[in-house]
Amino acid sequence: MDERTRLLRNVCEPIGANVYFAPEAHQRYVALGLAEYGSGYFCSRGASLGRPSGLVVTSAFGVFSPAVVVPAVEAGWAKTEPGPLLLARYDGAAASLRRLLGEPDARQIAPAVELLRRGLAVAEGAGHVLFSGLKSLPWPDDAVGQLWRCCDMVREHRGDSHISVWTRAMVQPVEIQLMSELQIGIPLKTYSATRGWTVEQMDAAIAGMTAKGWMDGLAFSPDGRAFRERIESETDAMEVPIVDAIGGDFDELIGILRPWAAAIVKVGIAGGGYPGDASAIGAMSRRG
Question: Taking the complete model, does pTM exceed 0.85, yes or no?
Fold first, then answer.
């Protein structure tokens, strides 16, 4: 395990992924005709790939049931196009960050963006579909927008790496979702249900994971826990070039980003922030 890659993930995640909880973004999607959350989420996140079909979005996102993705994407593209949706996503994300953080000091944003871009410049694009989609977009002029784009790219690169690791290990999407619940310590079959998996599908997956020796009852077996941690460690390994490129400035970068990430998490979902424990932003580096 490389602690640096997880720490980078933990401080970039709330900044980059706040857009999924931001009312500013949702309001802009509604203005384009996407009143249903799923259509706004799947189409806006997938729009960097052009106008992908529901099955392409399912493949790129990795952990969702096509039963919920395909109709949501079809409904979304029936009402809007990628260009306006990408602009709505960008504007909503930047507006949300300004609401949550005020106007961050440009003397801090500039070095943070510079260091993140240094790392992202060496990030592998092959097999990293969502990362490459974001990389293909025009670079933002606005400093807050640049910060958000960097964190979004860090997030999607790790996500793409994660998918490549668990698919290579012959793990199914519903299985990795259930494993992540066990690893994080949230109630089994709760988070996975938000990804469109039915109770029957989850129960069948649990039975299969038990047969493979990954679960004992409703908990990890020792082998299962080690297997899931190995998936996360191999994901870490794919992100090492990014933190190596940041080099000796890594601690400076984390020192800049950590207070912003903690402030966003502190607000929580109810305040349009991000879920989690603000006091654990640093310690979370040991969690998958």
Answer: yes
